[in-house]
Sequence to fold (424 residues):
Amino acid sequence: MTSHRPRRSWFTALAMLPALGLAACASDSGTAASSGAGVDHGASQEDYAEAFADVEPIVLNTQTPAPKGSVTGSYMELYLDAVEEWSDGKITFETSYSNAIAPPEEIDDALVDGRLDLGLVLPIYEPSEYPASAALMEASVLSDHGPITGTLQQNAWPNELAFSTPEVLAEFEDNDMKLMLPFYTSGSNALLCSEPRNDLADVKGAQISVGGASVGVQAAGLGGSPVSVQYTEIFESLERGVIDCSMISMNVAVLAGIIDAAPHVTLDPEVGLALSPGGMAMSQATWDELPLVAQQLMWDRLDVFVAGNVADKIWSSTVQASTTVAEAGGSFSPLSPDARKALAATNEKLLAELAASDKVSDGEAFVADARASSEKWRDLVAELGYTDEVDYNDFGEWYSEDKVDAQEYADTFFEEILLPHRPA
Fold:
């Protein structure tokens, strides 16, 4: 039995260009290869198995950002496993780990040149090439940051905004990618310092490593001095006193092992730092070759990715961070009133500049839509019954998988955001 392998050599890809062009002309959607029987939304696993009965095996090349079995890559592994299982084994993945095929800044290129069929892209590394995606990151200052409710809200509303922003979709289309999920986070960014710093007097003059323009502006707004430090050098820089703090998520802090050197964490649930998102995309050429039922399955099982990202990755990492912070003699603290006021003012300045920018065609409408969507999802998360019963200090002892079920959230996420864009 032959396997369908969308990954091709450059010679083969060039040879197929005329055929692909003709196929595109034969379909209103430009995806003639995606013809064939599909299934309705809500189809069972048995329904999918029946629909895949006559589909030739499909092998897709992908990678995860972490070692196999790691918490930091669990969400991707869960998604891949779900697609394989629900396709009755007709879709399988050749998976590399720890970004072995392409480093983060090259994943979009790897989707185009055939190294990857499916990848977790990071437009944050190329803001000039992806200005609308950069605008999403800047707007993320509107997110909440409670350990449960904030995690859910901040991973939902930017996706709703992205799918309603033509410029975001066009950036991926123009780079020959099929956008699957525009925005997911590794959790809230926080200020991790070698000593307590949660008010303006303590932050003033502190050397703070930052990973993006927005958080650099925020660090300066708090009186700190933003600096750029390579990810692999953050721990040593903190330990040697080259920097005083790092603005980073708990997930990355756990992965990098920097908490021992910076156990004093400032993370305010009300006014927070810009997020550092990624997205999921496929090679457009690969996507176009998939039968409709395969496209639908890969779309439908994004609910597994969404639930896994918040529960298996972010909340599990937060447990580890909470425990490690306590063991290292540190604690989680909110901003003091003066620092909260300063950060809120900086965030409003960022939003005003975004509204006046040309990153999207109508900046003012974009910011207004961001405010409305962030409020909508703040209310939706509450209506679904999610609450913050403890703060970050107690999260490590309190949380367990049976305490919070992320599936209802993931189902609502799919219905509200993904279902209107389901392949049909």
In short: The first strand starts at residue 58 and ends at 63. The two ends are 28 Å apart (CA to CA).
